[in-house]
Specification:
By secondary structure, the protein is an alpha+beta fold. 29% of the residues lie in helices and 25% in strands.
């Protein structure tokens, strides 16, 4: 017998069915699984976990409960999915390296930054943190909407009241269908300050808000770069920011170096990072690493990379930034659910803050309405009790004459016009309430409730008062969870590396020792002393090390470093490590990629505005001179560039800036000098070799080079100060030095004897120079008035500038 077709089955085009079903699935994933709500910053599973724990009393000061208990509670009542999905979510909310402000207080093994999985749920225990309690506070006051759970047996909140702006505090990561969200975590204090500012300045733009929120604040710390990139991401909701590990180069007692990594970028697996570095060494893509070990413990992270004796630590660190996740990007895609959690939308920083403010205004308004309703209900009862107590004898008589409770209720309502609620309260009133003190309590409570009602009504009538409460509570949260920023900010990009606007302009002194230790310190470090004194201890030098170069500069100047082999390297003066007066400084090889076989012999500083019109005059030990335009050194590679081509038996010793129309004066160690026009030296290309400047006697070498500026060539009060190794110095008027032709033998400039020692430095000075600082090879320093150094003829010995210890010698001077 042929079966009749089922009338409930309707034919439908399969493509239409697939399209509709997939759309339903996609919206379910977007709204009910993967994306956070802009109001409380939570996904549904997170919200259900927090609510289940709150509902079962697992607050921050309660006894811990097994995680398996929590998982069972959540899965049975609210989230009918796999237990592993729920437990993984609990684990992430308990990890201080995943969330900036963990929402669950976990006890036991909850995984690690090495990628270790948490222990099984039967071993770990959990309870809420104070931050998560702030998300749930006031939920019982009819503040939020509720929805039936999966089987409609109980209610669950659609969102939480959220006293803290959780979406920005902890960020969010999630992959939905056709979209994904990636919101970085931030610092609570900064976010609250931005909220307060936005409430007072609704038209504020991203740039203004970034005065309070300069960028993300990751739980693992690290460094982030480029304010412009962050501003774009905050303005559009999309973008990226570069994160870097915190790494420092330290020198060991043996003289070798090691790289110490104490913080890594957000969401980087430390174990995988170390394995990657090890593989790079094995594959010889990074050379110079001797050992690699993880010394991290409960006190913090510490990855140690030992560098070989001939390795360049800064170069190796740069290679690790390039080839590993010591440097990576965090991609912003700030999508969250708007319109009561129904519409996914990409949001700017301002829109997120505004949405949170709107949510809190609604929460405070609803809470106030709830408190007002409860206050009115209680006041109504108290009014009935007070009225009854004022006529208590009559009330008792009515009750005594009544047949039963229902009859008493009717009689009281009829005779005294009580409401049913008031009547029930009177009938349940205890005899102790008749005492005079108890009656006063009721009257006082009624008075308080009436005042509270008036206050709550005033609040509800004023939007400003509601906003004031929102901001007051936000500031209370800031005070309750004080927390310094963990992630360091470098406002400029990696090319600039630091933002000059944040660095004060100040005059500094840079010192360099023969072993390559460099430092900068404020020029005010050294107080003026009398000529001939012993001076202060300037640098705590290593054994056999000596002060080699000293110069005066400004923190915002550019610095060019020239090696004895004619190569130059570039950095900013503020990049030169700052140190105390007695510190030895930091090895120059740790922050410039200088080969260990080369030595810095000259340092030049200049301002950006000076490079287009200036030249560099270079002189070698054997008297070869060269002049090159300064702008040829504008883009110096990290590995350096050629500044002067040298013969094997020569070395570059001195470099000075000039205008192209100046005079040049040279001084030798045996006390000879020559002055000639700069135009006698034609401008050459960067890789040229130079020409002869001075005819030197056997054993003599260049000891000093300086420039006589064009405006000082009609010689007036300008002088040449010459200093000698045994602490002697003198000034000689420039008019005693005639202009000669380049390449001559020169004239006498100092009477060099065994008492004075050889000439070690010479400088042009005038009345603008008030003081000099003299450094000895063993680190002694003296600051004295220039006027204390006598003006004398060319062929004189001079006066004692500094009293030196036996075996010590003068190294150089700085003019202030």
């Amino acid at each position: 017998m042929e079966q009749e077709p089922n009338k409930n089955i309707k034919p439908i085009e399969i493509t239409d069915e697939l399209r509709e079903s997939y759309l339903n699935y996609a919206m379910s994933v977007i709204v009910s699984r993967a994306l956070p709500d802009v109001r409380d910053g939570l996904k549904p599973v997170q919200r259900r976990i927090l609510w289940a724990m709150w509902d079962s009393g697992l607050v921050h000061n309660a006894k811990f409960k097994k995680s398996a208990n929590v998982v069972g509670e959540v899965m049975g009542k609210y989230h009918p999915h796999g237990d592993s999905a729920i437990y993984d979510t609990i684990a992430r909310m308990a990890q201080d390296f995943s969330l900036r402000y963990p929402l669950i207080d976990g006890q036991g093994n909850w995984g690690s930054v090495d990628g270790d999985a948490p222990a099984a749920m039967r071993y770990t225990e959990a309870r809420l943190t104070k931050v998560s309690e702030a998300l749930l506070t006031d939920i019982e006051k009819e503040t939020v909407e509720w929805d039936g759970n999966y089987d409609n047996t109980r209610l669950e909140p659609k969102c939480l009241p959220a006293k803290v702006p959780n979406l920005l505090l902890n960020g969010a990561m999630g992959i939905a269908v056709g979209m994904a969200t990636s919101i970085p975590p931030h610092n609570l204090s900064e976010v609250v300050d931005a909220i307060v500012y936005l409430s007072e300045h609704p038209d504020a733009d991203t740039k203004e808000l970034m005065k309070y929120i300069p960028g993300p604040d990751f739980p693992t710390g690290g460094i982030i770069y480029d304010r412009k990139a962050i501003e774009e991401a905050y303005s559009t909701g999309r973008g990226s920011v570069i994160m870097r590990a915190v790494a420092d180069i330290e020198e060991r007692k043996s003289g070798s170096y090691q790289i110490i990594i104490t913080e890594i970028p957000y969401q980087v697996n430390k174990a995988e990072l170390i394995l990657k570095i090890a593989n790079l060494v094995v594959e010889k893509r990074v050379e110079g690493i001797r050992d690699l070990r993880d010394e991290s413990d409960r006190d913090g992270m510490r990855i140690v990379i030992e560098i070989k004796q001939d390795g360049a630590p800064q170069k190796i660190l740069n290679q690790l930034y390039q080839h590993t996740e010591l440097q990576k990007k965090f991609y912003f895609n700030m999508i969250a659910l708007m319109n009561n959690g129904l519409q996914p939308q990409i949001l700017s920083l301002k829109e997120m803050l505004s949405a949170y403010l709107d949510h809190r205004v609604i929460m405070v308004q609803k809470r106030t309405e709830f408190d007002l309703k409860k206050a009115r209900e209680r006041a109504h009862i108290l009014e009935g009790l007070a009225k009854a107590l004022n006529a208590i004898d009559k009330v008792i008589a009515v009750i005594k004459k009544s047949k039963d409770k229902d009859d008493a209720r009717k009689n009281l309502i009829k005779q005294f016009a009580f409401t049913e609620i008031q009547t029930n309260a009177i009938l349940e009133m205890r005899l102790q309430t008749l005492a005079a003190l108890e009656r006063h309590k009721i009257e006082d409570e009624l008075k308080e409730k009436k005042q509270l009602i008036a206050d709550l009504e005033t609040i509800l009538k004023s939007k400003k008062k509601i906003m004031d409460i929102v901001l007051k509570e936000a500031l209370e949260m800031k005070a309750a969870f004080p927390d310094a920023r963990k992630t360091k900010m470098i406002a400029s990009g990696l090319k600039d590396f630091q933002e000059e606007d944040l660095i004060p302009q100040e005059d500094v002194i840079i010192t360099l020792t023969k072993d390559g230790y460099i430092k900068r310190l404020p020029a005010t470090t050294f107080k003026a002393q009398r000529r001939g004194g012993k001076g202060l201890i300037g640098i705590d030098l290593k054994e056999e090390d000596q002060i080699y170069k000293i110069l005066f500069a400004n923190t915002h100047d550019n610095a060019l470093f020239f090696t004895d082999r004619g190569r130059t390297f570039q950095t900013k003066v503020y990049d030169v490590p700052v140190a105390s007066r007695t510190a030895k400084g930091k090895s120059i090889y740790t922050f410039l990629t200088i080969p260990g076989t080369e030595k810095i012999n000259a340092i030049i500083t200049y301002k950006d505005s000076e490079k287009s019109s200036a030249f560099l005059v270079m002189i070698t030990e054997n008297g070869i001179i060269k002049k090159t335009p300064l702008d040829g050194f504008e883009n110096v590679r990290r590995t350096g560039i050629i500044a002067l081509k040298l013969k094997n038996d020569d070395s570059l010793r001195w470099v000075k800036r000039s205008s192209g129309n100046d005079n040049i004066i040279l001084v030798t160690k045996y006390g000879k000098s020559i002055r000639f026009k700069e135009k006698d030296v034609r401008s050459m290309g960067r890789t040229a070799g130079g020409i002869k400047a001075l005819r030197l006697k056997k054993g003599d070498v260049i000891a000093g080079l300086d420039i006589i500026e064009k405006e000082k060539q009609p010689v007036g009060k300008e002088r040449l100060i010459v200093v000698m190794a045994n602490g002697y110095g003198k000034q000689t008027l420039l008019k005693e030095y005639k202009t000669q032709k380049r390449g001559g033998g020169g004239i006498k400039t100092a009477n060099v004897t065994t008492k004075t020692g050889n000439v070690i430095d010479a400088r042009i000075v005038d009345d603008e120079i008030e003081e000099i600082i003299a450094f000895s090879s063993n680190g002694q320093v003296i600051r004295t008035k220039l006027s204390a150094v006598r003006i004398a003829g060319r062929a004189t010995q001079g006066v004692k500038i500094m009293n030196l210890d036996k075996g010590d010698s003068l190294s150089g001077i700085v003019c202030l």
